[in-house]
Amino acid sequence: MARPQVSDLAGDLVPSGAVAAPHEAAVVAETAVAGLSHRRLRLRRFRRHPAGMIGLVLTVLLLGIGLLANTVAPGDPFAFAGKPLSAPSADHPFGTDNLGRDLVKAVIHGLRTSAVVVLWVVLIAAVVGMVIGALAGYRGGWVDDVLMRFTELFQTIPRFFLVLLVLALFGSGTTNMILVLGLTSWPMLARVVRAEALSIRERQFIEAARSLGASNLRILRKHVVPNLVPAAVVVIALLASRIILLEASLSFLGLGDSDVMSLGFLVSNAQRFIRVAWWMSVFPGAFLALAVVAVNLLADGLNDTLTPTR
Amino acid sequence: MSWRYLARRLLQVVPAVFAIIVITFGIIHLAPGDPVVAVASGNGDDAYFEFMRKKFGLDRPLPSQFATYVGNVVQGDLGNSFAQGQRVSSLIAERVPATLLLLGTALVVSTVGGLVLALIAARRPLGLLDLGVSTAALLGYALPVFWLAQLALLTVAFELGWFPLQGMTDAREVSTGFAHVVDVAYHLVLPSLVLAASEVALVARVARTGLIQEQGSDYVRTAKSKGLSPTGALLRHALPNALLPVVTVIGGRIGSFFSGAVLVETVFGWPGMGRLLVDAAGTRDHPVLLGLVLVVAFSVLLANLLTDLVYAWIDPRIRYR
Q1: Within chain A, what is the greatest distance between any pair of CA atoms?
Q2: CA angle at A266 for the pair A186 and A243, rounded to the nearest 5°
Q3: Has this prediction a pTM greater than 0.90?
């Protein structure tokens, strides 16, 4: 089933204390029966989720092709490789573009850009979102108020337009793209993590740890954060699929790094030749869509297996 | 809807407006490059730049510049375009109708389409039709809207020739009156369908979940046991209650509707705000760019406010958050 935006999901992702309790009990029971650890159990559950497994395999495959682009398709993707605008053939399975560039190579290097941008953005968003969310949820009180108001205000300007404005004003290199996407992507994660931390804070094992004299930092590190990971992972996976689309959309509008090959750029370049060279649009777009579907399926599988509240 | 809720909700708008203004002001002032040099396209000497800086008040301290900025934004004065010299507010105003037409149509199409799909799917959960709708929804959600637009151009417009390729009206024949309406409607079909496609998915998903939930509830069973047909119970009883979350989803997606419109307008050559935005980004026309971002941000803010008010109006249980 299609996933809505992360923010919409916050509602059904985050178990309230009452909802979580029976689920925890169920997990405990299942664990006891199978004699498996939590982690092994989740792994097993994920392996039995066909959509999730397909998503995982496709994601790893596309990520691998992208990150190994220089080995899989060595050389400059902008280089002239054959007669311009030639249709798909044995030499050029995806055809060539208006400047005679081989589109197989271009797509592979485009995947590389998507992969690099997504990985960095997710890293930035994960660190900022986890820290702010965990802090707000665990500390509560005025810390929570301040951080959450800040998060909300951060979201008032629609992200796409905020990013577009910054890229147009500050220049559109890959570094800028990563920074601005990363620094605008954390609020959704922070909100989900905060809600999760709020409910974890009230659990008995936290009280137990505190009564044993554990410091706040230790409780956060040892007891709160590890329990935030499942919900965070699901949000991060959903985030990744949004980032692939955002990066491609921005590159499509000419706000990508012009020195780096990207799928969005390839589709936008196809626009002028749509009547004569359908392959220029179809192949790069198909791989872009495939990447998004793959990550969405993966997120779906993770959601069903890591947060099985329904 | 209680007055208390209304007052609270309206009050929340104030910090949001302030945030929009502060963030945009911050971005402009942190941006590299001297606006004075940019306006002069690099021509001119230091004395001229100094003169211009004074003229535009750029030599004044930051707080004073901020006050001017707030004053101007509040009055709807967005400055002049670098590239065209026209007032930004009138440049944007020219483009608003085309974008509103596209957005409005897509909004209606995606809402109605999503509900219809959800009704089909919810009649037999996990049946063949339900799975079909789910798969279509996943695809609609995952396909990049600009690529979907190009595919539509390639197939329906170019190969089959059913719809025009570009623009909002036929450039060869200038029409008036009713013929003009038909002409615009004909050009509107593909862009609005493509823009609606990604949002249909979400509406369908949320409405389907709601419908399936409501169908299992006591009042629907009561209605059925009193002799109402399953379809009747679905339409008369389950649907109105399942609509509540749909309202929130649609309202919450106005921002992404806008970004989708920018992309769709680019592919179809639709003369709306999106095209203006892309042109402004391309020519680094900062005032136009900033003006458009402000207009979109305030529109989204307004849409969210309206959504919450509509929600509180149709669901009297809502007091305040």
Answers
A1: 75
A2: 10
A3: no
